[in-house]
């Protein structure tokens, strides 16, 4: 069983088909528009409610933690419940339930100031430089992942996800093109993260874009993630068409 938090969000709702080989438990605050498939069950829950999170992770082998406030302009008080308290709840509940693997959706905003200064390529082993309080909460999540991986049986993969727009959407903007993640590559990334033989790691999650903003070698060698799609090629094909 794999738990997906934030299952009603853009990434969560898209990811379901890519993980169809698993039994899935979908959780979010509001799943009224979610029609579960035969391999899915739904559980409405608030990340800030520890008891609810403890119930959600029970019996799960893995957790894909996508839930939280995704706004780079959010205030600390808007972020604290879902991105700080909720973050701890998911990690601690997973530890208590004996979850094997937690895949944490971090963000490119953890190193957003490096992007602002054009310090490319950005590697996952370099310094953090958040460009927002949202990025700060995601950096906290990476630190929490390392803590739990070293002090419990929980293994943790942190993914600094790039620009995910969903199906058939691509913006003609050089910055976004460098950090784009396609729908098929999202599936490849999460599937690799669920099965890779790693104890802890931080990786960038983007497609095989040219030019490339991030150093993807670590994701390739440690996760076995092989992205296929290229934003520039897709954009050129659409322009030629």
TrEMBL record:
<dbReference type="InterPro" id="IPR050177">
    <property type="entry name" value="Lipid_A_modif_metabolic_enz"/>
</dbReference>
<dbReference type="InterPro" id="IPR001509">
    <property type="entry name" value="Epimerase_deHydtase"/>
</dbReference>
<protein>
    <submittedName>
        <fullName>NAD+ dependent glucose-6-phosphate dehydrogenase</fullName>
    </submittedName>
</protein>
<dbReference type="InterPro" id="IPR036291">
    <property type="entry name" value="NAD(P)-bd_dom_sf"/>
</dbReference>
<dbReference type="Pfam" id="PF01370">
    <property type="entry name" value="Epimerase"/>
</dbReference>
<feature type="domain" description="NAD-dependent epimerase/dehydratase">
    <location>
        <begin position="2"/>
        <end position="168"/>
    </location>
</feature>
